[in-house]
Amino acid sequence: VAATSRSGSLRSYVLGRIAFAPVFLLILLTLLFVLLRVMPGDPVVAALGDRISADEIQQRREAVGLDDPILVQYGRYLADVARGDLGTPVTDPRPVTRIIADRFPATFELTMVALVLAVGIGVLGGALGARFRDGPLDVVVRLFAIVTYAAPVFWLGILAQLVFAVRWGILPTGNRMSSRIEFESPTGFYVLDGILTRDPELLVTALRHLVLPGMTLGLVISGVFVRMVRVNMLQTLRSDYVEAAHARGVSGPRVLFRHAFKNALVPVVTMMGLQFALLLGGAILTETTFSWPGLGTALVEFINTRDYVAVQGIVTFFAILVVGVSLLIDIINGLIDPRVRY
Amino acid sequence: MTAPTSSPIARATSRIEHALRPWRRANPVAKALVIIGFLITAGFGFLAAFPDVVAPYGESQYRFVVGTQDDPDAIGFDCLEDPGCEQIARREAPGPDARFGTTAARFDVLSRVIRGARVAFAIVLLSTALAMGIGVPLGLISGYRGGRIDRVLVTVMDAVYVIPGLLLAIIVAFVLQAFFDPGLASASVAVGVVYVPQYYRVIRNHTLSVKEELFVEAARAMGAPPRTIIFRYVFFNVVQSVPVIFTLNAADAVLTLAALGFLGYGVPFPRAEWGLDVSQAISDVVAGFWWTALYPGLAILLLVTGLTLLGEGLNDIINPLLRVRGYRGRVRGGRA
Predict the structure, then answer these.
(1) 3-state SS, residue B87
(2) Is B325 strand, coil or helix?
(3) Is the C-alpha dihedral spanning B285, B288, B294, B296 positive or negative?
(4) Does pTM surpass 0.90?
């Protein structure tokens, strides 16, 4: 009864979230602009140094609009972002949006594989740990969660390369595709390409390259999922309706999987927003370790060339991504959990 | 239990008893975790405090004998004719001479792992001090004052909080490069900024509830100025939540520092920093030299595990929700 009377508030909750997201993004972008703009010196000179003449430097400066007052630059930055323009790097003729379009599919493939693996391990390990609380299995699960969280992802990646690629030679050390295969990727997603073009060699090669980076990143973030599912499961198992189910004589596994499970997963979705941050950070490191040509390596490359325009563009994209994902998660949460709508 | 007429010693004992009660009631697994975590952390703490006692060589020592008679620490002096100047072997596998092997730069891996503890501890402490120094006062003021300041601070902190920690640290390190030479200080700032919102949030929320307490009301009624109320009455009630956040954040900070070091934005070579050492080892791995990458990474793993065990265990013990009732209503830890 209460749920139907609150259906109006679901709409206002969702609309409120959608209305707040741009405000939040604006604050975030302002923060990033201020942060990246306090740097002294000239970004064009910083990136290109004395490789180009003074005239050219001036031309570039004007092209980027660096001679305008800071407030004008700020306004233009926001207007550009609103139009979907993230600027053009100083060291690269392609606009940042083009670079993102080229590089993002790689990051997406990697993070999806990692996420699926992490959620799988998390749900299984967390449920088992909670079910056998304080037993030996629970201790193993908890230790697994802590140790995987504690393992630096780049180190685990290097060890994986050492064992699987260098010692045993069964998997490639890095990159997305073997250099022997030449192809124009229609979608940018190599696994998808392999399926669409019905090219088994392409598909297998793409998957083989995904195994080590995907497993490494997935394993490292799985610890957090295990811990979250376990704690939520413990709390759910303690709730009245679970006890009632036990009292009615419902079997143990049935209570665990039919009654407790769904409710235990609700907070996991809530926490997903934070895990997204972890995933993104992990992706930057994993990509660097495996020379994976994604957005993380692009960011690192531009930082190393001190191309601040490109760095700002990519970071802006990350910010939009973060706000978008947290909006999505808020809405999903509102849909599945009536309590958050208050 | 204590009689009102008891002696000061008995009162003190009962106070300690009271403080230790959660510990004694905690389940044995939680206790074991805390003890293991403490031992690991303390072990690394010892290495950080007294590296010279344990480490056979200096952090960037590549010769068996360092320095001249005049300057014992001099590294770069020309000693081609000096017989004591024999260089440490390059990329030597772990053995009796070098327990963890040596690197391509002729550094002793064991010594660098040991000396890396000091860098890790220094940066974690500095960055946490920074995060606390900003987050705690802002949280107190924001929570106590409320109103517009609170709303603005909450939104800004939320904005900082949603930026993935490593990304934020990278951006800050990138910006700081323009001002300072990279080193301990700038690495600490880059790592510390990430944790400001966490201290802010916890302290603010705690302040919100403490400021409604009767004793704060009483202080206000007696005419105590806001500053006194915030920093004397509220502060000491709110700081209790800091230690647990500290241990958990410290674990995370070690990882963030290592990640920065790995990407090359942390402390510069040749400082002994574990993340940096792993990144230096990438080329070794392709050639099959495993020891240069394995040991520094293992040190990160161990220290983070230790800190996490400590923090998690303390959290379990202090947080009574998880302590008292177990699965299916079995009473746990009710032995006292």
Answers:
(1) strand
(2) strand
(3) negative
(4) no
